[in-house]
Amino acid sequence: MGTILVTGGAGFIGSHTCEALLSRGDHVVSVDNLDPFYSKEQKLANLALLQRPGFTSIIADITDRAALERVFTQHSFDAVIHIAALAGVRTSVEEPLRYEKVNVQGTLHLLEACRKRGIKRFVFASSSSVYGEESVAPFKETERADRPASPYAATKRAGEHLCFTYSHLFGMHCTCLRFFSVYGPRGRPDMAVWKFTESILTKPPLVIHGDGSTKRDFTYVGDIVSGILAALDLSPRFEIINLGNGTPVSLKDLLAITEKVTGKKASVTHDAAKPEDVPVTHADLTKAKEVLRYTPRVGLEEGVRRFVEWYRTR
């Protein structure tokens, strides 16, 4: 049992991570600025689910160094799980400077705060988007990943580099986890599973960019959280590790699954493919299994069923 700082604790993956930590007896401090990228009300609802002994919620911005100093002065942390970020590949094309400030400078502020206080365990939420267009599927962590297709991807790769630097110079144990298309209850409205479900149930038509052949390695949030906790506990000196499902599925097939689960047909229109969208993501899980003993357990149809159940009752 320890005291863990979770940045982005009001968000999708962050709130599930906080919940899992609390369930096993850790004390958790969440730092989140309730960024309006998606509904503030949804994030407040996430925080409401976490209210119990051992949980503290702080509304603060990781780009505000003075605010972070207060957090680190008022609390003593055994480890940091850094999930807070501006997400969204397409939005980053429109606001690259804002993405750099939050995703790069914010990460550096946290690493500095840890260095100054001798906090050695740091888990960084990276992204499969760092692989870019030229990586060969299934994506291995040994890929150079030096051709990011979006500003978002570039900021996540920069965060990985900063983690390596702090591990190299200051002996911090930094684990960078490359998440692959995470979905599940309390998910983000900009992600495919949410958008497909919402369109089928309430807001047709569904707009698909391209012909639907784009493939993603959709990964259930509970599996991602299991990998996060394993990285926290095992705390290797420095590692970059994929967390995915290991089975890419096309958008056309995701749509068919969502139609089956909801029992309704979608009304679909197609738009031009986006240059920032890579054709496929596919996690090689060899390293995750060896280092973290990670095994994804929730298949896509079951995961979509759980999401749709949550969506209908939220």
What is the first-to-last residue Cα distance? 32 Å
Q: Output the strand order for the largest sheet.
A: 3-2-1-4-5-6-11
The SSE order reads EHEHEHEHHEHEEHEEEHEEHEHH
| Computed structural class | alpha/beta
**Major beta-sheet overview:** 7 strands, parallel
How many alpha or pi helices?
11
Low-confidence segments:
none
Give the strand content: 15-25%
Q: What's the helical proportion of residues? A: 40-55%
| Number of extended strands | 13
Report mean pLDDT, rounded to a whole number: 95
What is the CA-based Rg, rounded?
19 Å
Dominant shape: globular
Please characterize this protein's 3D structure.
- By secondary structure, the chain is an alpha/beta fold.
- The protein contains eleven helices and 13 strands.
- It has helices at 12-23, 40-50, 65-74, 89-94, 96-117, 151-170, 192-201, 221-234, 251-262, 286-292, 300-313; strands at 3-7, 27-32, 55-59, 79-82, 121-127, 173-179, 182-183, 206-209, 215-216, 219-220, 238-243, 249-250, 268-271.
- The strands form four sheets. It has a seven-stranded parallel sheet, sandwiched between helices. The protein has a two-stranded parallel ribbon with strand order 7-10. Strands 8-13 form a two-stranded parallel sheet.
Name some characteristics of this structure.
314 residues; two-stranded parallel sheet; alpha/beta; 11 helices
Chart the SSEs and their pairings.
Elements: E1 3-7, H1 12-23, E2 27-32, H2 40-50, E3 55-59, H3 65-74, E4 79-82, H4 89-94, H5 96-117, E5 121-127, H6 151-170, E6 173-179, E7 182-183, H7 192-201, E8 206-209, E9 215-216, E10 219-220, H8 221-234, E11 238-243, E12 249-250, H9 251-262, E13 268-271, H10 286-292, H11 300-313
Parallel strand pairs: 1-2, 1-4, 2-3, 4-5, 5-6, 6-11, 7-10, 8-13
Antiparallel strand pairs: 9-12
Helix pairs in contact: 1-2, 1-8, 3-5, 5-6, 7-9, 7-11, 9-11
